[in-house]
Amino acid sequence: MHLADRLLTIAITATLTSAAWVVFGSAYIDRGRPAGPVTPADQAEVAEAGSGEGASSPATQAARAPLERGAPVRPGRAEVSRLMIPVAGVRPDQLVDSFTDGRDEGLRLHEAIDIMAPTGTAVVAAAAGSVERVFNSEAGGNTIYIRTTDRETIHYYAHLDGYAPGLREGQQVRRGQRLGTVGSSGNAEPTASHLHFAILRTAPDAEWWEPATALNPYRLLAGR
């Protein structure tokens, strides 16, 4: 075979081999890509994968924020089981869903429910946990913040008339333990005593005062 013929054969063979690798490589890469737009199921899978160790760090939260925006927040273990109505004698059918009601002339949402009861009615722990903060504020009056045992949730009790004797920060409380009594302290209407009860999803290593995601207590307490 002449030199020119050999060079032509080599060139044709190289071209065909290169084309074959391009086709194979594209097929291989495409196997790792989503077939279409990212679905809610895809987002849930990614969020679940990022929920392990280190997921609560600022960097991880920032990375996951686009996936979680607008998605429903799943209750923690303490909400799914062993959560009780925190006012003695109140039945689920007596609760009213005021979670999305406006406050301050519509400037903010309530993000809690008001459990109506006469002044002096016992307020009890909705779930077991540790008392993180006991103090009097201008808006909430006599308040209590309790972090659940899984450390993922904080229960906020406000407008109490008074505290149970000996209640203190750092104390461990059991589900149903008396915390204080219903009242109208703070900015509550004196003629409409009630417990302002909020549920806040948080990170296990976050402080009680750090921003958290509010859950609707009505859905959990009334089973709706």
Features:
224 residues; alpha+beta; Glucose Permease (Domain IIA); 2 domains; nine-stranded antiparallel beta sheet; two-stranded antiparallel ribbon; 11 strands; 26% helix; globular
Topology:
Blueprint: H1 3-30, H2 40-49, H3 58-68, H4 77-80, E1 102-103, E2 108-109, E3 113-116, E4 122-124, E5 129-137, E6 141-148, E7 153-163, E8 172-173, E9 178-182, E10 194-201, E11 213-215, H5 217-221
Antiparallel strand pairs: 1-2, 3-10, 4-9, 5-6, 5-8, 6-7, 7-9, 7-10, 10-11
Model description:
With 224 residues, the protein is α+β, with helices and mostly antiparallel strands. It folds into two domains: 3-68, no CATH class; 78-221, Glucose Permease (Domain IIA) (Distorted Sandwich), CATH 2.70.70. It is 26% helix and 25% strand. It is built from five helices and eleven strands. It has helices spanning 3-30, 40-49, 58-68, 77-80, 217-221; strands at 102-103, 108-109, 113-116, 122-124, 129-137, 141-148, 153-163, 172-173, 178-182, 194-201, 213-215. The strands form two sheets. Strands 3, 4, 5, 6, 7, 8, 9, 10 and 11 form a nine-stranded antiparallel beta sheet that branches. Strands 1-2 form a two-stranded antiparallel sheet. The radius of gyration is 28 Å and the shape is globular. The N and C termini lie far apart (86 Å).
